[in-house]
Amino acid sequence: MYRIIGLLLIVSLSIGQQKQLPQVKLKDMKNKTHSLDKIVDGKYSLINFWATYCVPCRKEMKHLNRINKTYADQNVQVVGISIDDSRTVGRVKSMVKSQKLKYTILLDTEQKLYKNFNTTAMPFSILVDPSGKILWEHTGYLPGDEAQMELEIKKALASQKKS
Question: Domain 20-162, what architecture?
Fold first, then answer.
């Protein structure tokens, strides 16, 4: 009897656990340190990992810019995190400028945060709720993927209105 209750308790706890965004500190392009949990606190955040040498990442950026602008008044933001290492991080600033990116850009030069997600593909995006709970993950970019991103954002916003 106690074994069954214990097993049910373990199963219910594992089902109830949601993945949370790890609490890390990352630098911006001006070398200022930011706590990621403070940046996402209170906002739905589409976090996009990218690198300057990633061609699909560059193709996705104009859509991320538009998503950031479109949903800004609905408590949604895009946060770009470059995973360029110490050899290529110098290219980030010019990439941000040439792509006219208007959203927050942070640097994960040692890929400490990126490695938490057990992926090697780029771009890699996650949608987190205002408390940092991960709602959705997506790897890669093909034209049209931005529609799925927007659908996930709309679903998150709709579920917020219900609660």
Answer: 3-Layer(aba) Sandwich (3.40)
Binned average pLDDT, 10 residues per bin, the chain of 163 residues:
45 55 95 95 97 97 98 97 96 97 97 92 96 96 96 94 73
Q: Edge-to-edge strands of the sheet including 104-107?
A: 33-35, 25-28, 104-107, 76-82, 44-50, 124-128, 134-139
Other residues' Cβ atoms within 10 Å of the Cβ of residue 64:
25
Contact 37, 29 (CB under 8 A): no
d(C-alpha 134, C-alpha 44), whole Å: 10
- d(CA 99, CA 93) in angstroms, rounded, equals 10
Compute CA distances 50 → 57, 86, 141, 163, whole Å: 6, 15, 11, 33
- What are the sequence ranges of the domains in the chain? 20-162
**CA-wise closest residue to 51 among 108, 119, 115:** 108
pTM value > 0.85: yes
d(CA 82, CA 74): 25
